[in-house]
Specification:
By secondary structure, the protein is mainly β. The protein is about 10% helix and about 35% strand. The N terminus is likely disordered.
Length: about 375
């Protein structure tokens, strides 16, 4: 069970209501049963040139992988309740969902192979809905890995009501197939790679010792990650990277809880290794991580977030070398962090532009605004 969340004692009454609603909504997401999802409307049928079919597991095919191999682009694979001990590799646009059962778990089989439980590669329009996925062997293999195809390709995946948990190599891993075994030729890394876009909604990523979502360097810098209405809790890090060269064109997190991610990194990003062209954080609770938000960004928009009681810095945004950056923070509550509330990593001759207003920044042990002598805009801290 999550810790009981206490609101900052000096927040105004309307902000208390807003933040309480945000946190309670996040906790409801965290504690939801993830018992399955409604059928997903097929949007990939046009890719196949005919009407999508429904393939059922185990009624029509004994394993998920056999159904995937038999499916045509745009087909729907419906999975009955049960535990499926197998590896699943998807290289075409398909939807995999539960049949409204209470429990569908995909886990790596006992005869260990060096690969992640579910691998999506070089395919647009892959949807996973209502599934639980884990990987119980040693890292670096993940519950779900999304790998880029060759240069110029796009791999796009959507997760809805998915629970990825207990995987030592991460709940979700973007761009990592170097050590994956038995991959299709188009999924084997060699030189530059294609683009990967991942969208996650209404999902739970928890108890992954390495990371909830880990971004590798082996994907095109045009890649994007979007997280909405989800909980990323009790992982080694929430969302981040330790890989040099890990880059995203866009990272958006909205209406989500990122909490109690410790040991490897912080809540969002880690050690500045993840570089993002455009970062958007809106209406999130980022609490009790080893650090709150630490990212290298070309531009960052933080609005209406609760960033509270993190063991390091609340917000640290590092400007990429030789590039002026724009950081805009509005209506955030940033309180009681052990490090600075908001810290800028200023590189000589590269002065970031900071805008924003009405942020409640107080009670941070290392200081509320760092450096204190920076020309913070009037009204930035209320």
């Amino acid at each position: 069970m999550p810790h009981r969340i206490l609101q900052p004692t000096q927040a105004s009454s309307w902000r208390r209501i807003v933040v309480l609603g945000l946190v309670l909504a996040s906790i409801l997401t965290l504690t939801a049963s993830f018992s399955g999802a409604k059928p997903v409307k097929q949007i990939n049928a046009a890719l196949a040139g005919n009407s999508p079919r429904e393939l059922r597991v185990p009624q029509d095919f004994p394993t998920i992988q056999k159904a995937v191999e038999a499916a045509q682009p745009g087909d729907l694979i419906t999975i009955a309740e049960g535990v499926y001990r197998e590896y699943v590799t998807i290289t075409k646009p398909l939807t995999l969902q539960t049949d409204r059962s209470n429990y569908v778990l995909i886990v790596n089989p006992p005869d260990f192979k060096p690969r992640s439980t579910v691998l999506i590669c070089n395919a647009q329009g892959v949807v996973l809905s209502g599934l639980k996925v884990t990987h119980n062997a040693i890292p670096p293999w993940a519950a779900i890995a999304v790998e880029a195809g060759p240069p110029g390709s796009l791999t796009a995946m959507t997760l809805k009501q998915v629970h990825a948990f207990g995987a030592h190599g991460g709940g979700i891993r973007m761009g990592f197939a170097t050590l994956e075994d038995e991959l299709p030729r188009e999924c084997r890394p060699s030189g530059s790679r294609g683009r990967v876009d991942v969208t996650i909604s209404d999902s739970l990523l928890d108890g992954n010792p390495w990371a909830g979502i880990y971004v590798e360097g082996g994907i095109a810098p045009e890649s994007t990650l979007t997280v909405e209405n989800s909980s990323i809790v009790r992982n080694g890090m929430g969302i981040g990277s330790l890989s040099g060269g890990a880059r995203l064109a866009g990272l958006t997190v909205q209406h989500s809880m990122i909490a109690e991610n410790k040991n490897v990194g912080g809540g969002l990003a880690s050690l500045g290794a993840l570089r993002v062209e455009k970062l958007i954080l809106q209406d999130n609770a980022i609490i009790r991580n080893s650090s709150g938000v630490y990212v290298s960004a070309g531009s960052a928009e933080l609005q209406r977030n609760l960033i509270w009681q993190n063991e390091g810095v609340g917000v640290l945004i590092d400007a990429p070398a030789f590039r002026p950056s724009i950081f805009d923070l509005r209506d955030n509550i940033i309180r009681e962090n052990v490090g600075c509330g908001v810290q800028l990593q200023i590189i000589p001759n590269v002065i970031p532009r900071v805008t924003g207003s009405n942020n409640e920044i107080a009670g941070n042990q290392a200081g509320d605004l760092c450096p204190a002598d920076f020309a913070w805009p009037e009204g930035f801290k209320k």
